[in-house]
Design brief:
The protein is an alpha+beta fold. The chain has four helices and six strands; from the N terminus they run ββαββββααα.
């Protein structure tokens, strides 16, 4: 990346945007190199860094195809299936538990 211009938080010039800002505009970086970076200072820690891309060379976001929609639906459904009891929990299973609430806390189910 070489020597990138570094701007302070909220002081980047117009025409540059982060990935999230590009996405909100319906754009993507499209293979372009990072144009600059923004640093947000923090107390007693390293600053937060966000990379900036040029808006004028950004490309439009690729549309979702039916195959991509199907793959996304399948992945989201897999996040709702408990690996222990193999039932659909009806919600996304938290990674901290790794299983549905009824499998993670069986003693609470019997007490209720």
């Amino acid at each position: 990346m070489g020597a990138l211009p570094v701007y302070r938080w909220r002081l980047a010039p117009d025409g540059l945007a982060t990935r999230r800002q590009l996405r909100a505009l319906g754009l993507r970086p499209g293979g372009q190199d990072v144009a600059a970076q923004v640093e947000r200072p923090r107390r007693r820690r390293a600053p937060l860094v966000a990379y900036l891309y040029r808006i004028d060379t950004a490309k439009p976001v690729r549309p979702m195809t039916p195959a991509k929609w199907a793959a996304l639906a399948k992945a989201n459904a897999a996040r709702r299936i408990c690996p222990k009891c193999r039932r659909n929990a009806g919600y996304v299973i938290p990674p901290s538990l790794g299983m549905c609430a009824s499998c993670a806390y069986p003693e609470e189910q019997h007490a209720a």
